[in-house]
């Protein structure tokens, strides 16, 4: 069976929408933990709501991914790079689950109520300082790891798109 | 070769990002700067960076319902609601002598573990000395460098705070102090109408209390624990409504005593415990954890409190987590 040249439309749309969402969430998160500005609370509320949407989005995306036929990298890509690409993808899926889940759980452990558009959400943990510490640190460090992964991924994509021109970049852009 | 180029490019992007986030330009005062300044040179592992010395309390808030017309919040409808709270003194040292502290606090989380919870952290001064986080940071710097008189002279808005301080007499008990929300908030009714308010916990006892040892780090704690043996300690929660003349965003100016005042109910403190064993230890008394029916004012200090408290909470939670890891490894 021939592999497709490009990712299916649904996956391409999810990829770019989530790229925008995740970048916004990361910048909002990294800014709001430092800022004393009066807009900080608004950003925080927005970050929580959008984070929950990102959790729904990654679930949907994983389902689409598992049901889709995805292109393979061209044979011209060395084995080490093939492996690196697979690990990067795996890392993205993992971190995109870890980020919203740790965010949710750290709010639970801090005893803070959560709601999505006014609808109260259940608390899955009891209030506990060490548990808060665990999920707060996971949330913070996973965010930095995600930033690093995005940098590596973007550099590799641009390398394929601008220098190699081997169709890898195109596979996420058009049919 | 292409690996080298790739690595160099990736490295350059990371370096640029780190530079942009951390050192570019003149960074405004951050939550981390604040907490660094508050915690001082000696880190008290696992303790709050400000108001480190304190203890946990619990009991119930008996709401009168007098404020129910102004707010849809459950805690302001008639009824009895449990709370977890904390009494503390200002400072970063958990073993500082209670009676030497210039500020005392009463913090409450009413209706904990529910979507209706209302957190408030109240202090003995009724007003802030300055109105912005940047100036408050300068005030803390002035305290550290012993230039407070100069700071007050340079900031005329400190006049009301100084006026209060000039005739404030610390009492012999946490039970006989007045604790103020300092910042203003809005009450929001079911139609969405907003009313700016401040509130205060006013003592309901005139029993002055007995201090056994004035120099004891926990002199006030001992007094309070002894007092609770005789029965609950009560405070009246009094709300002051703003008029058109009051600016809810400026915490340096007291509101006139002629403003309407309503009693939201009574805080009944029934139990107390040392903080490491109490339910209050896991809580960050962030004054912006507000239920529906409350909204924050535009006061920049109020907004900054939430960010600084969150950083303090993160640090001590991390330390307690590490202590648990270390404890587990040693067993």
From TrEMBL, chain A:
Its cofactor is heme b. One of its GO terms (cellular component) is plasma membrane. The keyword Transmembrane applies. It is found in: Cell membrane. Keywords: Cell membrane, Electron transport, Heme, Iron, Membrane, Metal-binding, Transmembrane, Transmembrane helix, Transport. Its main location: membrane. One of its GO terms (biological process) is respiratory electron transport chain. The chain crosses the membrane at residues 45-64, 84-106, 138-162. The keyword Cell membrane applies. InterPro entries: Cyt_b561_bac/Ni-Hgenase, Cytochrome_b561_oxidase, Di-haem_cyt_TM. Residues 7-174 form the Cytochrome b561 bacterial/Ni-hydrogenase domain. It is a multi-pass membrane protein. Belongs to the cytochrome b561 family. This is Cytochrome b561. It comes from Alkalimonas amylolytica.
From TrEMBL, chain B:
SMART domains: Catalase. InterPro entries: Catalase, Catalase_core, Catalase_sf, Catalase_SrpA-type_pred. Its EC number is 1.11.1.-. Transmembrane segments: none annotated. GO terms for biological process: hydrogen peroxide catabolic process; response to hydrogen peroxide. The keyword Oxidoreductase applies. One of its GO terms (cellular component) is cytoplasm. Keywords: Heme, Iron, Metal-binding, Oxidoreductase, Peroxidase, Signal. Residues 7-331 form the Catalase core domain. It holds the Pfam family Catalase. It is an enzyme of class 1 (oxidoreductase). Its cofactor is heme. One of its GO terms (molecular function) is heme binding. Residues 1-20 form the signal peptide. Heme binds at residue 309. The active site is at residue 51. Has an organic peroxide-dependent peroxidase activity. Belongs to the catalase family. This is Catalase-related peroxidase. It comes from Alkalimonas amylolytica. The lineage of its organism: Bacteria, Pseudomonadati, Pseudomonadota, Gammaproteobacteria, Alkalimonas.
């Amino acid at each position: 069976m021939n592999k497709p040249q490009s990712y299916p439309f649904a996956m391409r749309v999810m990829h770019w929408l989530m790229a925008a969402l995740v970048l916004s969430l990361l910048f909002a998160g990294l800014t709001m933990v430092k800022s004393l500005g009066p807009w900080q609370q608004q950003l925080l509320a927005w970050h929580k709501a959008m984070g929950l949407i990102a959790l729904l989005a990654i679930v949907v995306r994983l389902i689409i991914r598992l049901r889709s036929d995805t292109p393979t990298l061209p044979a011209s890509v060395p084995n080490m790079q093939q492996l690196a690409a697979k690990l990067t993808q795996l890392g993205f899926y993992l971190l995109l689950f870890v980020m919203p889940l740790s965010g949710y759980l750290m709010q639970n452990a801090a005893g803070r109520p959560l709601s999505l558009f006014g609808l109260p959400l259940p608390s899955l943990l009891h209030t506990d300082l060490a548990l808060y510490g665990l999920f707060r640190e996971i949330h913070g460090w996973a965010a930095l790891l995600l930033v690093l992964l995005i940098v590596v991924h973007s550099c590799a994509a641009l390398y394929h798109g601008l220098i190699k021109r081997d169709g890898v970049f195109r596979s996420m852009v058009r049919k | 070769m292409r690996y080298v180029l790739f690595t160099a490019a990736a490295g350059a992007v990371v370096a640029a990002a780190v530079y942009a986030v951390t050192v570019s330009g003149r960074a405004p005062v951050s939550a981390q700067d604040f907490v660094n300044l508050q915690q001082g040179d000696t880190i008290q592992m696992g303790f709050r960076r400000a108001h480190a010395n304190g203890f946990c309390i619990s009991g119930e808030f008996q709401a009168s319902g007098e404020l129910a017309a102004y707010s849809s919040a459950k805690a302001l409808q008639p009824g009895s609601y449990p709370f977890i709270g904390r009494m503390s003194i200002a400072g970063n040292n958990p073993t500082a002598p209670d009676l030497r502290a210039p500020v005392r606090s009463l913090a409450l989380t009413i209706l904990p573990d529910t979507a209706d919870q209302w957190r408030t952290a109240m202090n003995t001064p009724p007003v802030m000395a300055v109105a912005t986080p940047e100036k408050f940071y300068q005030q803390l710097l002035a305290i550290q460098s012993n230039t407070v008189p100069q700071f007050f002279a340079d900031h005329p808005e400190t006049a009301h705070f100084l006026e209060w301080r000039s005739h404030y007499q610390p009492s012999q008990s946490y039970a006989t102090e007045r604790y103020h929300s300092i910042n203003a908030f809005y009450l929001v009714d079911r139609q969405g109408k907003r009313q700016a308010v401040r509130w205060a916990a006013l003592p309901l006892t005139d029993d002055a209390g007995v201090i056994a040892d004035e120099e004891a780090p926990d002199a006030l704690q001992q007094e309070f624990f002894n007092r609770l043996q005789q029965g609950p300690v009560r405070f009246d929660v009094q709300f002051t409504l703003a008029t058109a003349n009051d600016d809810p965003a400026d915490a340096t100016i007291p509101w006139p005593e002629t403003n309407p005042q309503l009693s939201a109910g009574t805080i009944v403190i029934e139990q107390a415990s040392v903080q490491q064993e109490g339910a209050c230890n896991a809580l960050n008394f962030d004054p912006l954890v507000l239920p529906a029916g409350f909204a924050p004012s535009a006061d920049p200090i109020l907004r900054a409190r939430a960010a600084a408290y969150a950083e303090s909470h993160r640090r001590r939670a991390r330390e307690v987590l590490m202590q648990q890891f270390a404890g587990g490894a040693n067993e």
